[in-house]
Amino acid sequence: MEEKGGTKSLEELKKFGFSSEFELEQYDDVLFPILDVAEPHQHATQEVVTACVEIDRGLKLREKYLGDGLFDYQRSLPPLDTVRPSYGPPEKPIPPSAHTMEWKDGCIQLNAPDGSVLFPALSAEEFQADYAELKRIVYSGPVKTFTYTRLHVTETKFRVHELLNRDMEVESSLLDPCDFSKVMKVDNHIHLAAAMTSKHLLTFIRAKLEKHGDDEVASKKFGKVSLAEYFAKLGMKKEMITVDSLDTHRGRTFQRFDVFNSKYNPFGESELRSLFLKTENEMGGKYFAEILQELFDRLETSEGNTSAEFRMSVYGTKPTQWEDLAKWIWRYQLWSPRNKWLIQVPRIYNIFRHIGILRSFQDMLDNLFNPIFEASRDPAAHPEMHSFLLNIAGFDSVDDESKPECMDPWVPPAQWTSEENPPYAYYMFYMHANIRAINALRRAKGLNVFTLRPHCGESGSLDHLAAAFLTSHSINHGVNLKNSTSLQYLYYLAQVGLSVSPLSNHNLFMRYKDSPFPKFFARGLNVTLSTDDPLQFHFTQTPLLEEYTVAAKRFQLSNIDLSEIARNSVIQSGFEHAIKSKWIGDTYHLSWTQGNQLNYTNIPNIRMQFRKVVFNAEIGLIDQCVKNASKKDITIYSRLSLVDETYSKLPKQKTFTSVRIKAPFDIPLSGVATSKNVRPFMQMYDARDTYKGAQAKDCRHDYKPYSASDPLPGKLPGAISMHNGVIHYRGELNATEHTHWKKMWLLPGAVKDIADRLSKSSEDFDSAGGLAKWPHYLNDLLKLEKVGKDLAVAESASRMLEILEHLYSLYVMVNDEREKELVKKFQSDFYSIIKVDNHVHASSSMYIVEFLNYVRSVVERDGKKKLFLSSDGKKQSLRDLFQDHSLDPDGLTIDSLGMRAESTIGRIDKYIALQDPFQSQVFKRIFLKKSKNEVNGDYYGDMLSKHFSRLVREDGESRFVEYRISIRGEDPAEWINLAQWCDRHHLYCPNNRWVVQIPRKFVEVMAKPSVNSFEDVLNNIFQPLFEATVDPQRHPKVHKLLRHISGFDLSGYSETEVTLDSSWAAQYPAMLSPNSEPPAAYVLYYLWANISSLNTLRRSRGMSEFD
Fold this sequence. Notes:
The protein is built from 41 helices and 27 strands. It has a five-stranded parallel β-sheet with strand order 7-10-11-12-13, with helices on both faces. Strands 14-15-16-17 form a four-stranded parallel β-sheet. Helix 4 runs antiparallel to helix 25 (605-628) and helix 15 runs parallel beside helix 16. The radius of gyration is 40 Å and the shape is elongated.
């Protein structure tokens, strides 16, 4: 066994179904095994080409609207800006400029100081056309089919990558002192009004009551009172102020956004929300500022290395709202290097229009963007506003997405004067269009720019996700992408950021177990974790770490997975280039491994390179199919690689996509196929060949069974004897048989140790001469048990099985359509192909109605015949028998039959009891026994005969069976009785082969006077078979029966299974105590040895063999 480089391990893996074509994968000095799906693009179907063209069109639509320095679908991440990190007031004033703006149908046109157009107003009509085009693409049948397949491919590749390279990734990450706890994690989606936990808010309120209870507060309910008086008038004593009474933590909020919104009111009082969680109140937002400062302190001193992007609302109801908010921040010096602001614009225009604050949607846009323009044009005139804008990363749009949307045609914002709320896409377009115009001005002045990062895909229509795809840098939530593979694939290719909050989703719209987050991550989408509202959803004082911890446990994420998710959070965030460089390395904006620095991110380059290979494969497939779209002659499907040599017999036209593992020769498959872990498998695999080879099924001829007119073979002159539990035939073969036997065993590929049994003298023939003896078998068995208990081997086996499962699943996914096309060329289908029921017991082989109808017919025919013995020994009729069991013989039903398996899981005793018709062993003896009953097994035989006739008549060409029938080993005459019974009832059906079932009831059998040991049991089972084989003319019926038997079965179980150990090596069947059941492995050996000996003898005579 070679150890160096693991080459031998790879060779050994081929036996487990892995590719015979292991190749070298080397990228950027990283070596690792990878799942390869070979799909030559020139062989794509026309439907695939069509889908790729459509997807490329969708990506270009996004690039049209977001092609100015944001993410593009090539995974290039240019810094959004290179201005200095900003927190706190600016260092020096910036002079004003002469830029001007004009509103054109709700969109800003930006003019340069010289009057030229610096940024033209976007067209709503053009956007609507593009939006409609994108929706057409998303709902296209070919696109949905293609994207479903591709996402399955990317996910499977990741699952296999984990299995193949998990250990190598861990070893690589250990080379650097960085770990997940040191990696920066940004909470990209957190609302400031709910950024504290319930415990934090409660502690703050109690502290205010204790130390500042005389603070004067204004109340509509009570007028101007002290804080302490306010709570007293609410009837709340100090001891009543608890987290439960605070009532801000979730509750019954699932699918109830209205209840969720009410949870922002401490103690259920909206006035307390205004007092503690608003910037505008009689106290000037003092309490809210103090809470925020505590949040900043926690961020800056946190052990978990976290930052945040707190969201504050600007409603667009008045033009002074921006200045008021900026002055509040300035007044309380609310700056932190660990925070960037996001401005959320609630989509509640309809409410403000209804109460008369707004006259049109244009008023809302004026109030939102005119102040930003003025502060950007002349920062010195608006110092607070300018300082505030420097610390803003972008904009959000929030509200309940599940609300029904207005279906009215779009009109310019100045004309949208109704009280209907505009649809989601309307908000997105006008937010996007005007943010881009403002960005053009700020970029021209060297200021930071903004992104649009709305709430999207939490609930509601999938169209929201289409609108966001065209307009938004990244989104919050996005879980509805699970319902559209088309959009999900587009989001993957464009690497649109998704900030997912599974704990929030669990309490509002999607239970944790249903979260698509782990699938999104595996498939390579740009996902990260965020908290949304710690006030409602979290318990610990580090909510973001709580989110990561729960996800790690529920989704089985490794530290490397968590580190990748954390890196995504930094990249999605609006922190400046210099800050991101400090957190995740100064090359973060480069692609894949070039942008990854292990000492900052804790992500091995193996992981990043894997992501690159998979992503480039998808982009390459799209690009090549788009290039080939104009070609007229497109080959139908991709090629077949020889994953299995049996495929080599297919036509030369290779038509399938190959699925295989590609791995370098000079390293082992770490953790999966190291020589140390594979060797035990191969040793046991070789050991199995020793026992399987004794039957030599793979190298024997397929002999034609005798017909009824065939003459019976003559008697052999040798002797039959049992030695240590195994029957031997020793003696001569006649000349013809000797020559035939020798020729057969010297076929190329025959098992050598069996072929060597043939000596020059035919007198030396011994049917069991080359078989492994019991001590040797026991030694192999104990070795196998040891292998089974080896945890490292077990883990390798588990991984290999998972890999094989993924390979098959992926193969089916990528080749399903081609297989369907291929089978159409053949004149067969599932219903016409041959199917064999390999495991069915003869006594329960018929349908329950079929069995009941037969019983009814017997009652009608023989019901009055006095054939059966009563408990007192008197003869009675079948009808009397039923009546004795409180059954109406004329009213027998399926329910009274009582043989339906219900509630039997884990209850073998109940299952066994169901095999007794009418819950009585008396009726089982009468109807389901082949002997030892008053009718000599005639009812059972007659019923099976009718059953066989129906089987041949209805399913004769496609359905075959192997019915099990029992031989207990009580008496050698069992075989003769069985053969006579089969012959009497014509139970030799061409659609059936019998399997002889040997029940594990040996203690019961050995209690018979004629059976003294387990060796006697074996002798009773196999001696008649050897005799019928040696002298068929003396045992014609048994000989005939054997021609219709395919194998043997060991059935039943022992409640007190004996454990085998080395002391059993000297325990032979004649020595076993008749008072305990032999261990199953012990019985299996002696069945195997006797069957193998019998097969050798029968093979020498050209007779059928058994398994």
